[in-house]
Amino acid sequence: MQQIRQDLIESIPLLNKDSKVNDNYKNITSEYENGIKSSKNIKKNVWIEAYGCSANIGDSEIISGMLKSHGYNIVNCIDDADLNIIVTCSVKDSTEHKMLHRIKQLTLDNKPLIVAGCLTKTERKKIERINSKVSLLGPNSLDRSIESANLTLSNNKTIFLEDSSIEKINLPKIRLNKSISIVEIASGCLSNCSFCQTKISKGNLKSYRPGSIVAQIRNDINDGCNEIWLTSTDNGCYGKDINSNLVELLKLCSELEGNYKLRIGMMNPMYLSEILYDLVALYKNEEKIFKFIHIPVQSGSNKILRQMYRGHNVDIFKKAVYEFRKSIPEITIATDIIVGFPNESDEDFKFTMDLLTETEPDIVNISKYSQRSGTVSSKLKNISSDQKKFRSKILHNLSRDISRKRNSLWKGWIGDVYIDEITNTLVQGRNYAYKSVIINNAEKLNLSIGQIIKVKVVDSSQYSLFAEPLDFN
What we know:
The radius of gyration is 22 Å and the shape is globular. It is 34% helix and 20% strand. 48% of the residues are buried. It has helices at 23-26, 29-33, 54-68, 93-107, 119-122, 124-130, 145-153, 198-202, 210-222, 246-253, 269-285, 302-307, 314-327, 346-359, 385-408, and strands spanning 45-50, 73-74, 83-88, 113-117, 135-137, 159-160, 180-184, 186-187, 206-207, 227-231, 261-264, 292-294, 332-339, 363-368, 414-422, 427-430, 436-439, 452-460, 465-472. Helix 14 links the parallel strand 13 (332-339) and strand 14 (363-368). With 473 residues, it is an alpha/beta fold. The two termini are 26 Å apart. It has 3 domains: 6-21 and 28-160, Rossmann fold; 181-408, tm_1862 like domain (pyruvate-formate lyase- activating enzyme, Alpha-Beta Horseshoe); 414-472, CATH 2.40.50.140. The strands form 5 sheets. It has a 6-stranded parallel sheet with strand order 2-1-3-4-5-6, sandwiched between helices. Strands 15-16-17-19-18 form a 5-stranded mixed β-barrel. A 3-stranded parallel sheet has the order 7-10-11, with helices on both faces.
């Protein structure tokens, strides 16, 4: 996922006041007004940082928007803050360690601190051992953000971890990148993976209403967004609790006017298989959908997949890759692999290597297995860290070669690129297959985020395509 930069935060507009706002949000007022909202002595400069998936980034945008719409200033420099907020991720052991280290650093600032995100539900005791005064805000408790901020700034600890009924769409928002709209389409999932803490944090599937999602997208297109990221814990199971599905939602989201494309987030193979043929047809025929799909297989061994409680087998993943590549050969396919899962033998690992060699995913996110507290797999016997490191290195080398090969196929391609990131050192865009395209000699063009330019790809690497600009608007 591309980097979304904090320094853009003040340049992005809030939700249009003429847009439809989540009805539940209108009822929140009485909740946070009890949190001393009216105190004129409270300084309201807030620093917010977020880690992890696009849903976490989206949560931070909502927290920022809600606070700003009620008198808070979202600052670009942490030294200017009166209150610090961190939206945490707990997906891996190494991530948890980084989160806890960052909480220690923020605690040393001696400023009021709110810890939000997944870690609050999975590792509350560890957080409170670091800072006994810290306030906690769960991933499904964003409607308590203002109340939590008000009370925390008044030296009152708050614990808001209960799940709210509010949908996290059509709420005030400060986007960190003016060209990207992050729209959460559901909370929670239907899976029970033996290694995953996310289910502990976010619970069972709660799909948001299609009409509300479309209203959010329409507003964001009107605000100038041309990349719409549809995100959730598992997009593949969207709608199963409301008699709908992802294909029906995407058809609605594709009917809006405007120059935009939809980027569909992760979907597990077990639910993707139920809508596979309809989804492939929609991807092929709908120009407003990026030709990008993220299907996390996790292992090439059916034995390991059963121990992971994944609900799919290797053939289901192969079938999905085959059908998408048959209809859209250039589609960008991403997958995830957990290496070194308990009881993973040399043969199991070879099955994973063989699967990647056969299916050639453009992007492989590789994680060394780590035990997560509260999960079923944490009770299984771990394999040695040396084995994990060795196997991880092999997979990284294999995936690097596959990515280079897949990206090299784009050399000579001419087409439009959406500019979505500009730094001091590079200008990056995305083509219709969501390939990262680095624009050569861009400093001469005075480009801006959201602009669309025509380019010719002249080179490639493992991670990106490199292109020369031809013309632009």
